Each structure stands twice: as C-alpha cells, then as structure tokens.
Amino acid sequence: MHIVFRSNEGERELEVRLRNPQATLDDVIRVVQGRAAADSIVVDGHPVSGSCPIADSGLHEGAVLVVAGD
Questions:
Q1: Comparison of pLDDT for 12 and 68, the residue scoring more
Q2: Residue 3 pLDDT more than 80?
Q3: Domains of the chain by residue range
Q4: DSSP string across 3-58
Q5: Could you confirm whether domain 2-67 is CATH 3.10.20?
Q6: Among 9, 39, 54, 67, whose Cα sits 20 to 30 Å from the Cα of 48?
C-alpha cells in the first residue's frame, strides 16, 4: 500500500508491504526515522498507539501517517 509520511522535514510517499502480521506502527516509524516514535502516531487524524499492529491501526492505501509531537 502507498501512504504519506508527514514530519517536520516534509512529506514522503512510501510503499508499505506487510510481511509480518504482527508488525506495529512503531516498526514502520523505525524504518522511516531510524527510531521508534516517542509519542503517539496519527493515522488520518486519529491518534493510535505505536504498539498497535498495522493490521488494526486503520492504515490504508493513501493514509497520512504523522508522529504526534514531531
């Protein structure tokens, strides 16, 4: 799926492939930023815990992902 990752550095379009059904939003953030999110993650305006599995997070094609407080 293609998503948009938004941070203080701007927006980046990413392609996310779920290979591990237990992967979390923090796993995505670690890949993108090199570190886990310190705060909650926002998916299309809805705050979600970084420990939430991607499959349950509401992440979908075209979603905007933001690290709160970033």
A1: 12
A2: yes
A3: 2-67
A4: EEEEETTEEEEEE----STT-BHHHHHHHHHSS--SS-EEETTEEE-TTSBGGGTT
A5: yes
A6: 9
Give the CA count within 13 Å in the CB-facing half-sphere of 2.
4
Q: Residue 2 is encoded by which pair of tokens?
A: 């293609």
pLDDT digits 0-9 by tens, 24-41 = 999 998 988 888 776 778
Q: How far is CA 48 from each of CA 7, 21, 54, 64, rounded to the nearest angstrom?
A: 16, 17, 10, 12
Q: Cα(2)–Cα(49) distance, rounded to whole angstroms? A: 21
State how far the Cα of 55 lies from the Cα of 39, in Å rounded to an integer: 20
pLDDT (tens digit per residue) in 4-29: 999 877 899 999 998 998 999 999 98
